[in-house]
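Form 7-S
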Amino acid sequence: MIEPLKIIDEGEHAVTIEWSDSTENTYEARDLRLACPCAGCINEWTGEKMLKNESVPGDVSISHISVVGRYALNFHFSDGHETGIFSFRYLKELADQKR
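Output:
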């Protein structure tokens, strides 16, 4: 399993993760907010995205990052949203989708 070696807070608008597979990915705050996997943003029964892109401010920022166990990060966003748990696997998948 690929794991993060280092999590680098890039300020309010981004976070960078250095992975055990020697890759490095930078995640922008708005992209993370739009990809939030919580039940309020994604219908947990159908997988349908409930969050409307236009409802997320263009200048949304990350006000705080919490580590969840040894498997995930929780981002607290400037729009007040903070319920998403972003597993390291999910974060790696997000980065791989951008390639």
